[in-house]
Structure formats: C-alpha cells, structure tokens
Amino acid sequence: MILELILGTLNRALAYGTPLLLATLGEICVERAGVLNLGVEGMMMLGAFSSFVVAYVTSNPWLGILGGAIAGGLFSLIHAFSSITLRANQTVSGLALTMLGTGIAETLGRNWEGKVLSSPIKPFSEDFLSLFPPGVRTLFRDSNLLVVGSIILALVLWFFLFKTKAGLSLRSCGENPAACDALGINVWKVRYMAVFGGGVMAGLGGAYIAVAYRPAWSSGMTQGMGWLAVALTIFSFWNPLYAPLGAYLFGALFHLAFRLQVFVAPEILNSLPYLFPVVALVFVSRLAFRKKIGVPGSLGKPYERGEWE
Amino acid sequence: MDRRKFTRFHIEVSVQPSLASVIFFSLLAIILAFACGGIIFLFYHISPWVGYQTFFQGALGSWYAFSETLKRTIPLLLVGEGLALAFRAQVLNIGAEGQILLGAVAATWVALFSGLPPFLLLPVMFLLGFLAGAGWALIPAFLKTRFAVNEVLSTLMLNYVASNLVLYLIGGPWKGKGVRGFTYTDTFPEAAWLKTMGITRVPYFTLLVGIVIAVGGYFFLKKSALGFELRVVGSSPETAKLLGINEEKIVFLAMLLSGGLSGFAGVGEVAGIHHLLRHPDHISLGYGYTAIIVAWLARANPLATIVTSFLFGALLSGGDALRVSLGIPFQVVSVFNGLILFFLISTEHLSRYRIIWGDTKVVENYDS
C-alpha cells in the first residue's frame, strides 16, 4: 500500500520532472563550457509555443517536438552572439532572453489560447506496460518515450562530458579558455555549440510540456521551470548524473503541492517548489564554496584573446 | 611596448565612454528594438505604421496619454533608482517585483486592519511598506553574504513566493466582505488614498519622492563616503578589499535601498491607484522587471533614471494602447523590453570605442 503510494508519487514525479531534467541537462552543458545562460525560461516558453503550433498544424506531435527543439536552439544563438562574440554581460543577456522568449510566446500565443492538441504524445500503452512487473508498471504509468529518452540523455551527456575528448574540450573551455586557445581549440566554436545544445534541450523541455504533459496552449505554462532548471544545475554540481535526482525531487514537490490542496491553502503549497531551491542553495553553495565542487572556473566570464598578455 | 602606425584613422578604447556616445548608443538600441519588434504587428495583420502610430498616440499623443505614461513612470522611477544603486554595487536584485508586492501587502494591512487613526494611515503605510520591501530583499542579502547564494536566483524565486502570498491573502483571510465572487480585498478608507493631480490618476507625492530620491541618490553616490564605498565594491572588489571596505555591509545596503524603494513603490500603487489589494499581475505590470532595464539604460545613474523611467512609462502605456485599440496582448511590452536590453548590452562594448580620423599617428601601448 505504502509502496504503491510511493511508486504513484514517483510516477507523477517522472512525468512532471522531465521538462526540468531536459532544461537542466541543457544548462549543465552550457555552463560547463563557461557560459551562463539565464534565458532558460525564455527558451522553454518559445520551445513550448513552437512545438505546440507545429504539432497543431501538422497533427504530428513528433514534428512538434522537433520544432520546439530547433526553435530553442536557434533562439539561444542570440545569447551566444551577445555573450560570446560581443562579450556582453551574460547575466543581463540571459534575462533579456527570458523577457524576449516569454514575450514572443505570450504575444503570439494569444490566438492559440485554450486550443487543444488532437494528437498529443501519449503515455506508454497498457499492452506495452504489461510486459513489465506491476511495480514498474505503476512507476511508468504516465511516462512516455520522452521521459525515458531524457534519462538516457542524462547518461549520454555524462559520458560525453567526462569520457570523450570532445567533452574534455568543452569542459576545458569552461575552466581555462586561454589554455584551450593556446592548444588550438576554437573556444568560440565550442561555446557556440554548447549554447546551441543547451537551447535545443531547453526547447525540448518546453516542447514536452506543450505536446505531451499538458497538450493545450495557455500562456505562462512553464511556470518558472526555467529558473528552477538554473537552480538545479547548481544542485547537481554541474553533473548530468545527479540532474535526474534533483529534477524528480522537484517533480514530486509539484505533485505533492497539488495533492495536499485539500489540507493546506494551494498558494502556500505552490510556493514550496520556489522556496525549496532557496533553502537547498544554501547548503549547496556552502559546499560548492568550500570545496569548489564542479563550479566551472571561468563560468560567466567572456573570453577575449589577449594581445599583450 | 608596441608601436603601431595607423593611417587615416585609428580606434581608441576608453574605459569611460563619453556622454554623447552613451546617448547615441542608447537611442540606437531603442530604435533597433522598435524596428525588430515591428515584426510582431505583421503576425496580427496590422501594418507596422498603424501599430506605431497607435503606440505613440497612446504613450504621448494627448494629455490623457501623457498622464497615463506619468502614472506608470512613478513606480519605474522609484524601483529603477533603487536598482541603479544596487547595480552600482554589482548586486543584481531581480526581485523587485516581489518586493513591490510585499510593500503593497504591508500597506493593505495598515489601511484595512491596523485600526490606526486616519491621519496616521498614509505615513505608516509608506513606512511599513518600505520596511517590508527591504525585509524581503534582506533575505537574499543574508543568503548571499552568509552562504554565497547567487542573488539572481534567490531574488527571482522569492518573486513567485510573494506572488503566491498575495494570491493567498486576497482569496483567503483578506478577501473583501462586499466583493462576492471576486478575489480582492475591501476598498481602503479614503484617508488611505493618495491625492492625485487634478482629474488625472497621477499621485504626486510618490512622483515628488521619486525625483527627490533620484537627485539625492546621485549625490549619495558622488559625494558621500558610503556612496564611494558602494562604487568601489561594484567596480573593483580587489580594491575594496585593499581599502578595508566591508563588502557585506555594502551588499546589505544595496539590497535594503533597492528593496525598500520597491516596497515604497508598491505602497504608491495600492494607495494611489487601486485603493485595494488585488491580483499581483494588476498591482505590478511587471514593473520590477522593466525597472531592471530602466536602471541599466541609465547606466546605473540615479539621476538618469528620471529620463529612462519616463521612456519606459511611455512604453508601458503605449503597450496598453496596443492592447485596447488593436487587440495585441500587453506582453508585447516584454518583447520590446527584451529587445531593448539586448541591443543595449550588445552595443555597450561598442560605445567605448572611439574612431579618430586624421593623419598617421603613432599609438603606444605599454604593458600593464
């Protein structure tokens, strides 16, 4: 009984945590390369909107997912250009990206408000789930291919970052871009690609919400998830393997906030997912501060080839 | 040392861009943003010409439009000059939106539930509103100084919490008795209303305070010892350390001032315009976020926020005109905000370059 309850909660946590996970993985990739992109919320919103429109028009949810990913990636290039090429303030550039992305999605989304997708991405079918033992069945009841795909993506990204040469280059650009430059690695190219990859993943996160989780358009549907993803990047110590833990914890928190509404005012519960990261940041920041766990050495610092250094 | 010969012209990089180039690039950013933002109109099958005409009519086209712009300038000015001070210290307070709401909540409590004599209502509302906003901002200040928690994230998260707090109050314990199905509080007693200028809806008290603080803030930064410390912490933390400046004190000060002024602005909104506490989106039309650009465009100079807050006040009322006349959602303002901010920070680097035309020159660069 208790087990059933826990599995049921985890099931919802998986479903709700997936967009967070995708966006967090993206931000890990970006920050590991030394770029801080606070525009995750904007990229998610734009990804959600684009995927919804594409899925609605083509009646093909997978084309929608593709559209969301591409939109997120292309949109992130604005940030890449201003922060990498023009060496503008990355914090402010990210904020601008969020304002722009949510602004565009909500302005253009007015005509789509309340529309429902006729063919969303559906959870795994009963037939497919019946191949597994009952516990697994409960755990993955509301999951779909994207949920499983995002878990695999976490593993792949971990392998890429820590076990391949390209991943090493990416991380080095975040630690010591000058040394990379001296070794002949094109720092700008690596950072551009990392930002683009991050944008694609954030766009995927948004697309998951609009095409699979809640396949009807309403403005503000990302609910600040992009910002949570930025916080989650820190909780997971910039490591893709830890990202699912944090994302699903938040997923569970959102679910509990929904379930406990009978007992406590919903507004208080709805605050929890935002209060919790503040509290958690206290512990993580202390740890990160003392031991320098994971923090990319050149995070947020634009790289400029010094002529007289 | 490196000697270089240039013919015809050369480019100089100055640390301090000249006023003329700052103004030029600020205007350029705004013009570029409007040029790009015009694409939005095409999605609504409206010619950009008509769109901009409606926009400027609604922002500055009549006395009424002007007063609407002024009405929105006031909170932007108050919040913007606070953020200017914070940004000078490199404290990125993104939580003004929540701090505004906390000020509004404190004011509502005083107006409806404190039982104070009428003549005390307004003074206590502004006092407590300032303190509530400041108190809300001191949480991230404490977390930043004590636990090294990034203030961008903590202030932002607290915005969502503040918004939920207001929703809870207006739907629960503070829900008005005479409002039936709606979720807002009862109307404040008239002693808690701010006087407005003539027939307009512009409360002049907060406008005056805003201007006084802009001037005061300018001299505070320029002339006072504390202002000097704040600037040093912002521009060069290493120097600040050498000079023995208490960095934590400056972080607290920056948060206290910016949060307090945001709270003050929140009081102005409920006491001057709404006369009750209502949905957070109606109390603040994203003033906390727009004020970030107000402060940035002013290059974190409190005096310049008088000009920039008016520009963005015009942007907000122009956006409102687009909504009313052409049916374009108000969030279009957010598109312009984002674009202006982008072009602003992108050209910031450029504004430091100066092209000097002339004959062959020898420029000497010394290793530093």
Chart the SSEs and their pairings:
The complex is a heterodimer of chains A (309) and B (368).
Chain A: H1 2-32, H2 40-58, H3 61-85, H4 90-109, H5 126-129, H6 134-139, H7 145-163, H8 165-175, H9 177-182, H10 187-213, H11 225-235, H12 243-259, H13 266-291
Helix pairs in contact in A: 1-7, 1-10, 1-11, 1-12, 2-3, 2-4, 2-10, 2-11, 3-4, 3-10, 7-8, 11-13, 12-13
Chain B: E1 2-6, E2 9-13, H1 19-37, H2 39-43, H3 48-60, H4 63-88, H5 96-113, H6 118-147, H7 151-171, H8 204-223, H9 225-235, H10 237-242, H11 247-274, H12 280-283, H13 287-297, H14 305-326, H15 332-348, E3 353-357, E4 361-365
Antiparallel strand pairs in B: 1-4, 2-3
List segments of chain B where confidence is low: pLDDT < 50 over at least 5 consecutive residues: none
First and last CA, distance of chain B: 10 Å
Report the helical percentage of chain A.
over 70%
Q: Strands across the major sheet of chain B, in which order?
A: 1-4
Counting copies of identical and different chains, the oligomeric state is heterodimer
Order of helices and strands of chain B: EEHHHHHHHHHHHHHHHEE
Can you put this structure into words, describing what you see?
The complex is a heterodimer of chains A (309) and B (368). The relative contact order of chain A is 0.21. Chain A has helices at residues 2-32, 40-58, 61-85, 90-109, 126-129, 134-139, 145-163, 165-175, 177-182, 187-213, 225-235, 243-259, 266-291. Chain A is globular. Chain A has one domain: Orthogonal Bundle (ABC transporter involved in vitamin B12 uptake, BtuC), CATH 1.10.3470. By secondary structure, chain A is mainly α. In chain A, helix 1 (2-32) packs antiparallel against helix 10. Chain B has a domain at 64-298. Chain B has helices at 19-37, 39-43, 48-60, 63-88, 96-113, 118-147, 151-171, 204-223, 225-235, 237-242, 247-274, 280-283, 287-297, 305-326, 332-348; strands at 2-6, 9-13, 353-357, 361-365. In chain B, the strands form 2 sheets. Chain B has a two-stranded antiparallel ribbon with strand order 1-4. A two-stranded antiparallel ribbon of chain B has the order 2-3. The mean pLDDT of chain B is 88. The interface between A and B is large, with 48 and 48 residues.
